[in-house]
C-alpha cells in the first residue's frame, strides 16, 4: 500500500510541475513566480514549491493549496497584465469554473489515491533532447602513465575492462545514466576523444574533462565565442585554472589545495551552446581542473537534491540564450566533491553572458 501511495503522490508532483511548465509553455512560469502567486500577500518559499514538485520525495500540498492551483490554472487570464496572479473565483466565467472543478478533482484524486496512475514521462530538463537525435558523450583517455600498472587497463590482460582506460569515469557513469533515463528513445553512446568518428561530431556532443587530456574539448572551446579558456596544469606546482577575459584584462579562477597537496576546492566550468560542427545540435562541456570539478559540473544538473533549483536558476538567469557558461566552486570535504548550488551567489565565480547592468 505504501508503494501505491508513493506512486500516487509522485504522480501528483509530476502533474503540478507539468502545470507550471507545460500549461502555458510560452510564459516560462518559474517556481519563484508560482510561489508569489499562490501565497498572495505572503509569498510562499521556492523550496516549498520545489518540494511539491519533487517526484522522488514528494510533499503533498494541503487541500487549500490544491484549490488555489486549480483556480490559477483554470484560466489563461491568470497571466493578464504580465504578472501571475490568482483571480477570485467569483470572477471566473462558467467555462473557467467548470475547468477549475475538473482540475481540482484531478489533483485531489491523485493526492487521495483515487486515480489510475500511469508511469509519468521523464520531466524535460537541459539533458532532454528531441526524440530520435543522437547524443555522444566524449571522455578523455586516461594517460598511459596512469594505466601502465593497472592490469584492468591492459588490453592484453584477461582482466581487461575498457572503462579503466577512461578519465572521469564517475562523471561518465552519473551522466550516462541520467541522459539515458531522460531520453529512452534516443541513441546515447560514449567514447574517448581518440575513438570519436566523423559522424559523432555532428550529434549532440557532451564533453567531459578539459584541455589537459580531452582534445575535443580544446577543439570546441577554440571554435565558440566564449570569454573563458582553461589554463592547463603544467606540473604539481602549477594547478592551472579557468581564465576569464574582460575589459582588456583577465582573471584566473584556480583550485585551492593545502600545503600537502590535498584538494580543498575545485573549480567547475559548465558550458552549453550551439555545436560548431552542426548548428542544429548542441555542445555541452562539463569540466573541472580536477576530476571532482568535472563531476561537480555534471551533478549540478543531475543530483536530485539540486538539479531542480539549479535548472530553475539557469532558466531565470539565461532564458532562451543559445549559449551560456557558469564557473562555480566545488567544495571538497573528506575527499568528496560536493554538488554546487548555483542559487548561492558565493558559489558562482563567473557567468556568461554577464547580467545586464
Automatic annotation (TrEMBL):
Pfam families, sorted: HTH_31
Gene Ontology MF terms: DNA binding
Domain HTH cro/C1-type span(s) in chain numbering: 15-80
Protein name: HTH cro/C1-type domain-containing protein
Amino acid at each position: 500500500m505504501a508503494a501505491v501511495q508513493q506512486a500516487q503522490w509522485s504522480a501528483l508532483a509530476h502533474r503540478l510541475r507539468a502545470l507550471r511548465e507545460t500549461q502555458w509553455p510560452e510564459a516560462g512560469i518559474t517556481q519563484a513566480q508560482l510561489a508569489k502567486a499562490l501565497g498572495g500577500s505572503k509569498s510562499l518559499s521556492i523550496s516549498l514549491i520545489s518540494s511539491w514538485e519533487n517526484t522522488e520525495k514528494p510533499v503533498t500540498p494541503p487541500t487549500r493549496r490544491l484549490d488555489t492551483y486549480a483556480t490559477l490554472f483554470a484560466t489563461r487570464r491568470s497571466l493578464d497584465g504580465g504578472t501571475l496572479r490568482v483571480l477570485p473565483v467569483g470572477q471566473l466565467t462558467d467555462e473557467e469554473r467548470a475547468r477549475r472543478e475538473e482540475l481540482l478533482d484531478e489533483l485531489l484524486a491523485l493526492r487521495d489515491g483515487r486515480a489510475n496512475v500511469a508511469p509519468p514521462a521523464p520531466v524535460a530538463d537541459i539533458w532532454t533532447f528531441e526524440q530520435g537525435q543522437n547524443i555522444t558523450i566524449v571522455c578523455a583517455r586516461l594517460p598511459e602513465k596512469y594505466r601502465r600498472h593497472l592490469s584492468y587497463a591492459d588490453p592484453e590482460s584477461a582482466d581487461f575492462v575498457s572503462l579503466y582506460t577512461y578519465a572521469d569515469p564517475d562523471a561518465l557513469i552519473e551522466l550516462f545514466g541520467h541522459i539515458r533515463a531522460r531520453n529512452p528513445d534516443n541513441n546515447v553512446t560514449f567514447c574517448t576523444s581518440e575513438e570519436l568518428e566523423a559522424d559523432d561530431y555532428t550529434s549532440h556532443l557532451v564533453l567531459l574533462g578539459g584541455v589537459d587530456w580531452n582534445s575535443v574539448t580544446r577543439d570546441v572551446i577554440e571554435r565558440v565565442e566564449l570569454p573563458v579558456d582553461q589554463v592547463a596544469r603544467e606540473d604539481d606546482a602549477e594547478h592551472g585554472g579557468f581564465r576569464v577575459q574582460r575589459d582588456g584584462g583577465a582573471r584566473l579562477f584556480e583550485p585551492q589545495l593545502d600545503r600537502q597537496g590535498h584538494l580543498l576546492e575545485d573549480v567547475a566550468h559548465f558550458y552549453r551552446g550551439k555545436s560548431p560542427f552542426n548548428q542544429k545540435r548542441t555542445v555541452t562541456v562539463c569540466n573541472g581542473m580536477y576530476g571532482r570539478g568535472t563531476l561537480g559540473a555534471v551533478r549540478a544538473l543531475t543530483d536530485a537534491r539540486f538539479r531542480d533549483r539549479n535548472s530553475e536558476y539557469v532558466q531565470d538567469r539565461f532564458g532562451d540564450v543559445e549559449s551560456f557558461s557558469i564557473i562555480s566552486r566545488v567544495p571538497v570535504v573528506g575527499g568528496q566533491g560536493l554538488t554546487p548550488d548555483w542559487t548561492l551567489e558565493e558559489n558562482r565565480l563567473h557567468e556568461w553572458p554577464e547580467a545586464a547592468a
